[in-house]
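Subject: Protein record for review, amino acid sequence with backbone structure tokens
Concerning: The relation between a protein's sequence and the shape of its backbone.
How to read it: Take the token row as a discrete description of the fold.
Enclosed: The protein record, placed directly beneath this head.
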Amino acid sequence: MPNIVLIRHGQSKWNLENKFTGWKDIGLSENGVKEAIEAGKLIKKHEMIFDVAFSSVLQRAIKTMSIILKENNLTNIPIFNTYMLNERHYGGLTGLNKKETAKIHGDEQVYKWRRSYKTKPPKSSEEFTMSLKKDTKYSDLNTIPESESLEDTVSRVYPFIKNTLINHLNSLENVLIAAHGNSIRAILKITEKISDSEISKLEIPTGKPILVNYDMNEKKFSKHEYLK
């Protein structure tokens, strides 16, 4: 039975500063690097071997994946980066401190922006949108989103699961995915059929490996569990 290990990147510099990050390409904090190393050691303790690895196109996920693979002497396996695994695009909230934003807009509104399934944050600034349009990481994208709800993120992640992930699993390949809180929530919503209301309660901590098994005969994913 092939398995998947999902991991939210280690703490980023903006996680440390309590800022909305989204598609802003922010690196890991010192603690985030340590979290990635510890995750790699934990995976090694479980003697898990990966045949292929995926991450978003954002450096905090790419670096986390790289550290884990190095810890497990797996730097020679195929590695792919895709925007489909990016964090949710926080639009006009990008770069804002979460507590300060709650003081201005209220806790309830900020909770809706962060946790509601269908509510989108305000649109991003024209300057930030233009910076993404000029970024070569997104040269294949016809349209750059101005913000995303979790529902939008699920729609973005779904083709990756259907057209890429399942093909690798059906080839009996074990898969490592380094992504983000909301893209992992999107993956688990799809694989575990979590309801729109229940998904708002799901928290994904940084740097903690999550194991999901795939039953090829049943074409079914197991419920996720954290490696210990």
Q: What stands out?
A: Residues 150-170 form the longest helix (21 residues). The mean pLDDT is 96.
